[in-house]
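_Per-residue structure_
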Amino acid sequence: MKIKKVVLTNFRGYRSRTVIDFNDLTVFVGRNDIGKSTILEALDLFFNEGKGALKIDKEDITVGANEYSIEVVFTNLPEEVVVDATFRTTLADEYLLNGDGDLDIIKKYRSGTKFAGTYIRAKHPTNPECANLLLKKVTELRAIIRSQGIECDNQSTNSVMRKAIWDNYADNLQLSEIDLDVTAGDDTKKIWAKLSSFLPMYTLFQSDRQNTDGDKEVQDPLKAAVAQFFQDPQNIELHEKLTEIATQVEEKLKEVSDRTLAKLREMDPAVADTLKPVIPSPTQLKWADVFKSVSITADENVPINKRGSGVKRLVLLNFFRAEAEWRQEEAERRREIGDDTGIIYAIEEPETSQHFSNQKILADALIALSQTQNTQVILTTHSGVFVKKLQFNDLRLVAVNDAGDKCVTPIQSSLLVYPSLNEVNYTAFGEVTEEYHDELYGFIEGHSWLSDYENGKPRISYVRLFPNGTTRNEQRTITHYIRDVMHHPENTNNPKYTYQMLQQSVADMRAYIETRIATTH
């Protein structure tokens, strides 16, 4: 499964219902403290429920609200699922898909940290005669089948009986999109436990680094690998061995417990009868936790955190490079065995502490990783190097709208023929930079439009400096003046242009390019 969209409501700064569309590669840009990392952290809470990179915090709820929700809509759904025993069914047959045919899951929290339930928003039968079947026990479903004289050969499997009942009312299901609470009762909790196993694994790599010997930034790649390894359904032999070991330990613990309680019963039967051993079953064990201390160290076991931040991030960089290559090699084999296990890598500011050349290598690796089977990559960045490597439809701008609410919008191709962080910042925040001025000038000049652009524009005086040291007074448009002052710092005969001049020149070039493109097309 893959994320199609995320909806945040009353989560931190996202007060109003905010819809965010996702691709295989989704990159969030925007000014500092605008809410980019909040999106990645909301997903960590959704997938890992406070047991991942973040803990559930009472401060997560928007001030003045009494409930927040994190909604994730999934596409690329499995063809079949198991929700009752071992019987295979489909999400469509269980009426668990929304009106668009996607799986829509909502997790709600009240008063900050109080979990309010998991819901599936689905186009579901609401006819009282066949509604709420997911909440009904096996005896209740049998009673409906008997009372309505519905034909059903298998009355021991809930999903089979539900389908028989719904088929009986096929012409009068009264389908309507409703929120189904899948944590309301024991039976629905079991269904949710089955469904949640199909969700992709989510791993968040945060930009904030810990300065400990088990440096989290270096641990995370290995932890992600451990989690994938134990989640991988192809490791059947390994899972069987681990189950065998756990069963043997469970038997030994029961023997010790039984001996202890037997002796206690000789002395005080009443107390002994109130006690019982609590031993987790083999299926409840979290084998990945056994390897929670995995790390990478330098020579002579010197912790990697003693090295520079650039080296530490370099380890992370090459984890993603290796992961992209491996997942590409594995793609065909996984298709053959029907492995639909998904993974989502969420990375804050991957460019941190990296030279431009390394940023380009990392950008290429993350793009390649996002193109592998059942993989999504989510990034936040302030790097123009990263942005220029991307397609427009990979970018999402996080900003504040006129009403003061956070909004996340796709970035469409505007003036330049490639994604430009300078243009993104100008469009979003009116931020004018010399780099953006240079990009616009280069765009006009590259299309041989410069003469036409300057035609009729007012001129100002510019002192030109020749290689032999002589000078000559010439006239320049504001745009040309700024360009020459910017590119010829050795010429000190001209005053520095003002910020207002830079603003005016950028606005003029943008207006010209927009008009020229419109008339061309």
About this structure: Residues 231-294 form one domain.
